[in-house]
Design brief:
The strands form five sheets. The chain has an eight-stranded mixed beta sheet with strand order 1-11-12-13-16-10-9-4. A three-stranded antiparallel beta sheet has the order 5-7-6. A three-stranded mixed beta sheet has the order 8-14-15, with no helix packed on it. The chain has two domains: about 100 residues, Serine-tRNA synthetase, tRNA binding domain (Helix Hairpins), CATH 1.10.287.40; about 300 residues, BirA Bifunctional Protein, domain 2 (2-Layer Sandwich). The longest helix is centred in the N-terminal third of the chain and has 37 residues. The chain is about 40% helix and about 20% strand. By secondary structure, it is of the alpha+beta class. It is built from twelve helices and 18 strands.
């Protein structure tokens, strides 16, 4: 969340900066509401002062033997007026708070102008797409032909946008997870953690999913208000909610493998074939919690860590910077890593690596104590997929397919596959 004091003090400046995200802040309405808040605040303080004065007069009148009944009536009347003003002030404050918590993060100055993914800017690329001497199949054809992917049974037992992985494909999926966790924990210095797959509403609010994006979450229907996690970002980032950590403990770096659950509200009819966009999938998430001055460097570093997995798998990819109109609600800047999928003849997102600045930290009240001042300050949060496991599986199946329908296992995965060199052998 943005600093409410800044929004109240400079709403025009905030509105101007938000234009890059395509967000319109109604400055006049906000200023009118804040002016009403200030007016009631002044009236409330005046009533409080008047009540305090009359309360003191009661004591003096009583000591001098005067009749205090009129003064008691006046104080009681003031108490009623004060309660009414305080209730009004509380209602306006809640209304202003709802507006401020619904305002997206300010985009980084490096973020390009634009309204959609068509305006994203390519930053770099790695590898060259393989030139096939046959027409490559997509992962659905390959997986179903080799009895490694079963969408029909998944639809029967649950519904659309689910899959069952079998045999060698299931093992390959597990091998990809192991490669990611081993690489990030051993080579990149992340602490591997295992977390609950459900969170409470406070956690979902802290990272920006609630209240604005409630429709994108799966909510449990009992009285506890638990939500299935859309990504490990939510539980892991909330490790430091309502905490003041030692400066020496930063940066904190976590790697976490979880299932992810998304309702995909608003995306019906999009990417319905295969495993590209599902209600349940798995990711290895990378999270860094850092001091503000470490923020930009940490974001670049985390992105390179995610890229390293694709390099180890020898999968061509590119990195794009998202334009303002394509940025998420809570982020300042995002690099999307897009892997080449020959079955679609296109690059597709496999990781989003984002810097949130202090936006999430303010919502969570996640702070560190500055050793120079002794005062708590908001830390910065960065995260990204390292990588989306299902989409990595898709990329391996499609890029390593052979003309006879089998798939070569990348060298780096063979030790996790018991030395198997191919899968889906006819």
């Amino acid at each position: 969340m943005l600093d409410p004091k800044w929004v109240r003090a400079e709403p025009e400046a905030v509105a101007q900066l938000l234009k890059k995200k395509g967000y319109t802040l109604d400055v006049d309405a906000f200023k009118a509401l804040d002016a009403k808040r200030k007016a009631i605040q002044v009236e409330t303080e005046a009533l409080q002062n008047e009540r305090n004065t009359k309360s003191k007069n009661i004591g003096k009148a009583k000591a001098s033997g005067e009749d205090i009944a009129p003064l008691l009536a006046e104080v009681e009347n003031l108490k009623g007026q004060l309660q009414e003003k305080e209730a009004g002030l509380e209602a306006i404050a809640a209304e202003i708070d709802a507006i401020v918590t619904g305002i997206p993060n300010i985009p980084d100055e490096r973020v390009p102008e634009g309204t959609s993914e068509a305006d994203n800017q390519e930053i770099r690329s790695w590898g060259r797409p393989r030139q096939f001497d046959f027409t490559p199949k997509d992962h659905v054809e390959l997986g179903e032909a080799g009895d490694g992917l079963d969408f029909a049974t998944a639809t029967k037992i649950t519904g659309s946008r689910f899959v069952i992985m079998k045999g060698e494909v299931a093992r390959l999926h597990r091998a990809i997870v192991q490669l990611m966790l081993d690489t990030h924990s051993t080579e990149h210095g992340y602490l591997e953690v295992n977390v609950p797959n459900m969170v409470n509403a406070d956690s979902a609010f802290g990272t920006g999913q609630l209240p604005k994006f409630a429709a994108d979450l799966f909510k449990l229907t009992d009285e506890r208000e638990f939500y299935l996690i859309p990504t490990a970002e939510v539980p892991v980032t909330n490790f430091v909610r309502d905490e003041i950590v030692d400066a020496d403990a930063l940066p904190m770096k976590f790697a976490c493998h979880t299932p992810c659950f998304r309702s995909e509200a608003g995306s019906y009819g999009k990417d319905t074939r295969g495993m590209i966009r599902q209600h349940q999938f798995e990711k290895v998430e990378l999270v860094q919690l850092v001091k503000p001055e470490q923020s930009k460097q940490a974001h670049e570093e985390l992105t390179l860590h995610a890229e390293k997995i694709l390099q180890k798998l020898d999968l061509p990819y590119r990195v794009v910077m998202l334009c303002g109109g394509d940025l998420g609600f809570s982020v300042e800047i995002t690099y999307d890593i897009e892997v080449w999928l020959p079955g679609q003849d296109a690059y597709r997102e496999i990781s989003s690596c984002s810097n949130f600045g202090d936006f999430q930290a303010r919502r969570m009240q996640a702070r560190f104590r500055n050793p120079e001042t002794g005062k708590p300050e908001l830390l910065h949060t960065i995260n990204g997929s390292g990588l989306a496991v299902g989409r990595t599986l898709i990329a391996v199946l499609e890029n390593y397919q052979n003309i006879d329908g089998n798939v070569t296992v990348p060298d780096v995965l063979q030790p996790y596959m018991g030395g198997a060199k191919t899968i889906l052998n006819p």
